[in-house]
Backbone:
């Protein structure tokens, strides 16, 4: 193992990143396809442009439709404030009118042709936004890329499938609006990023958790072909319930249309709106009433966005072929599992797991039932880590590796709050964006600089390897090497292979059980 030695930089407090360092408004407007905008100039020399619309407001008759083109504006629009976040619980600055993005750049001119990185935030496809202070793009821009962060529809606005919506669609489908928003944002990048000094032919998508699930989706869908050229997925979030079929069960979940029909019917009956056109009544619901539906969110295999399930697309090698960097935190499950709040005994854990796995259990009980009551907590953390994040991460890495494109795997091990503990879910974010608090130690600052350097080097060249950076071997199916990232940097191999192999077997058996 090698102790990292990278340059130390002072990082601004995450809580003040969006507000500090502003020197003046940008005088020269940027010409977009829809009109002209100005942003603000930071003391670092970075320019930021906030709240740029990339699609028309998806409201009224556009609710539950693919994103439409922005209506052009006259004059010069001031892009100096982030747009509202998409509808979710617990936010005061939110709206259905939320399809906005932000740009950070330090390009001297539109001819700079800098690599472009497009950030997709996490939050279970139910919360979060591109304007979260952790995702401030100044450090990325200082490191030589154009950083774009995007909003997308979530909850019942981004994932609603329903027979009435499908009947209206010329393709006979519904749902996946969040993914269609990603595609619209990438089309906006293709058409406009050169004005910020970015290279539209060198675009890297990256995201974390549900954002990693979105990267997973964009790798799979043929609609994204050519819109990006590299991909980074942090803690890819794909579970046994967040991929569904549009109109039929898949062996684990009910169909997406059945899910939508159930919650809509209950809400319309509650409100006494059972007469008239169902779709008109659905669009007459307020945004707050849509949030009350509690719709389960998922990617939807609809024959269009996803001709087959993403797993089948990856297995067949029919996915988008680009270099990939992906990985997990070594203690992802720590965010979801709390000591003293899990099973009281091994017998209770075994009973729950046996019921969960049913006839498809195989040897999963050997891996995810503890040997003693004292080991239950660790076993549960490992189960969440593996089933929710490590398994789908390895799935896409292996899919890319089978094609001959380079893929790179990592395991992040640093815990900012307690370096003696494993790294929980989302812990890597402030390191990747180099937005650690002022109180962070020099070791943590160095780790942050290393991750930001690795990510930008990958966006620049398709490999994280470069001058002054610890060597990172490509992943291959034989050795299955991964990079360990933390206070120490080195390599490991065969990450939890027997557990992940068995989870793969379980998922395949369950999904194929209806065929």
Residues:
């Amino acid at each position: 193992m090698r102790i990292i030695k990278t340059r130390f930089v002072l990082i601004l407090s995450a809580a003040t990143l969006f507000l500090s360092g502003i020197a003046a408004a940008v005088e020269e407007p940027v010409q977009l396809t829809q009109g002209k905008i100005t942003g603000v100039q930071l003391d670092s020399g970075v320019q930021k442009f906030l709240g740029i619309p990339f699609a028309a407001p998806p409201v009224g008759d556009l609710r539950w439709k693919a994103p439409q083109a922005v209506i052009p504006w006259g004059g010069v629009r001031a892009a100096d404030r982030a747009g509202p976040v998409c509808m979710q619980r617990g936010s005061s600055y939110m709206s259905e009118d939320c399809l906005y993005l932000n740009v950070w750049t330090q390009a001297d001119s539109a001819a700079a042709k800098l690599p472009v990185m497009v950030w997709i935030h996490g939050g279970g496809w139910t919360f979060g936004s591109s304007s979260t202070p952790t995702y401030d793009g100044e450090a990325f821009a200082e490191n030589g890329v154009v950083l774009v962060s995007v909003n997308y529809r979530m909850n019942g606005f981004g994932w609603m499938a329903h027979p009435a919506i499908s009947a209206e669609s010329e393709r006979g489908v519904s749902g996946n609006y969040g993914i269609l928003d990603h595609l619209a944002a990438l089309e906006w990048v293709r058409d406009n990023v050169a004005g910020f000094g970015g290279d539209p032919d060198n675009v890297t998508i990256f995201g974390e958790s549900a954002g990693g699930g979105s990267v997973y989706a964009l790798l799979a869908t043929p609609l994204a072909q050519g819109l990006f050229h590299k991909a980074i997925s942090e803690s890819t979030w794909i579970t046994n319930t967040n991929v569904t079929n549009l109109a039929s069960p898949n062996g684990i979940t009910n169909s997406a249309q059945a899910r939508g029909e159930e919650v809509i019917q209950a809400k319309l009956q509650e409100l006494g709106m059972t007469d008239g056109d169902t779709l008109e009544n659905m669009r007459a619901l307020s945004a707050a009433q849509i949030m009350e539906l509690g719709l389960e969110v998922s990617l939807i295999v609809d024959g269009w966005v996803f001709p087959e399930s993403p797993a089948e697309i990856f297995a067949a090698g029919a996915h988008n072929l680009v270099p990939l960097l992906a990985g997990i935190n070594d203690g992802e499950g720590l965010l979801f599992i709390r000591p003293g709040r899990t099973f009281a005994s091994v017998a209770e854990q075994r009973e729950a797991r046996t019921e969960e796995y049913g006839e498809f259990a195989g040897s999963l009980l050997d891996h995810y039932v503890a040997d003693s009551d004292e080991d239950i907590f660790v076993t549960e953390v490992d189960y969440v880590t593996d089933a929710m994040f490590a398994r789908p991460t390895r799935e896409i890495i292996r899919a890319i590796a089978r094609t001959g494109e380079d893929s790179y795997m990592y395991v992040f091990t640093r815990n900012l709050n307690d370096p003696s503990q494993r790294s929980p879910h989302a812990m890597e974010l402030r390191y990747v964006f180099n937005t650690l608090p002022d109180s962070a130690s020099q070791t943590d600052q160095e780790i942050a600089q290393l991750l930001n350097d690795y990510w930008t080097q990958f966006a620049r060249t398709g490999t994280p390897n470069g001058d002054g950076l610890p060597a990172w071997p490509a992943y291959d199916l034989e050795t299955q090497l991964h990079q360990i990232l933390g206070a120490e940097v080195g390599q490991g191999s065969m990450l939890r292979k027997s557990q992940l192999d068995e989870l793969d077997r379980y998922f395949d058996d369950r999904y194929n059980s209806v065929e």
